[in-house]
Amino acid sequence: MIKRIQQASEFLQDRGFENPEIGIILGTGLGKLVDHIEVINEVSYNHIPNFPTATVEFHKGKLIYGNLAGKKVVVMQGRFHLYEGYSLFDVTFPVRVMKELGIKRLLVSNASGAINLSFKKGEIMLIDDHINLQGGSPLAFKGVDQLGVRFVDMMEPYDRQMNEKLTQIAKAQNITLHQGVYVSVMGPQLETRAEYRYLRTIGADAVGMSTVPEIIVANHLKIPVSAVSVLTDECDPDNLQPVDIDDIIAMASKAEPNMITLFTELIHSL
């Protein structure tokens, strides 16, 4: 396990991925942040030892290293999901590699559905807390204590300081930024009306199929992390409309400039 992480890290270091300060994971339809990066090098996932390969057509599958807002960053342009058939260890393996490379902070984005009916598609939600309904933990494997304490405290999984800065940036930039609870489900199917009612009842404001495993591992590795959800559809069980993946991608693209502003300004302030 440790050897696999080191092999991937050494491969990237040999290709100039040196001492990145910040890791970034870009979610569905949210890859244009890389257009704002002064790229030093990039590597396809399928060239990196022990890395999974992105199988979703709208995930690029590249690890990018460069400069953004005066900081060295390493960016996942495309992530991995349980619904692709990967294990929780596979899904979170890149976070462990980024830690080995040297990142000190992690920023995560995703596309999700708005369960809170006061939130509208095209808006952004800052994740304040989460609910894990993916049926497992990325820490549930033999030898996890070699990488960090087994019983990770999750009282405050999202970094308060970075979240406060994101809130201030949104206010200064006149960006609508909700705060709420993200629930992560297995997928890839979307939810039924009854499931949306259930998720709302247990306290979720938005639902998606990613992010929580990476957040758990970031906390295991003691990496301060913040995450935002771009709300791509509205999950009103009493007025539910069919959702097409092309519509989700289009809505993510519409909201993406605000996400880019939030991340870029935050990185500049760190």
UniProtKB/TrEMBL annotation:
Start and end residues of each Nucleoside phosphorylase domain: 21-267
InterPro entries xref list: Nucleoside_phosphorylase_d, Nucleoside_phosphorylase_sf, Pur_Nuc_Pase_Ino/Guo-sp, Purine_phosphorylase
Keyword tRNA processing annotated: no
Gene3D superfamilies in alphabetical order: Nucleoside phosphorylase domain
Enzyme class: transferase
EC numbers, comma separated: 2.4.2.1
Gene Ontology BP, a term: nucleoside metabolic process
One Pfam family matching this protein: PNP_UDP_1
Family note: Belongs to the PNP/MTAP phosphorylase family.
The protein's role, per its UniProt record: The purine nucleoside phosphorylases catalyze the phosphorolytic breakdown of the N-glycosidic bond in the beta-(deoxy)ribonucleoside molecules, with the formation of the corresponding free purine bases and pentose-1-phosphate.
UniProt name for this protein: Purine nucleoside phosphorylase
Species in which this protein is naturally found: Aureitalea marina
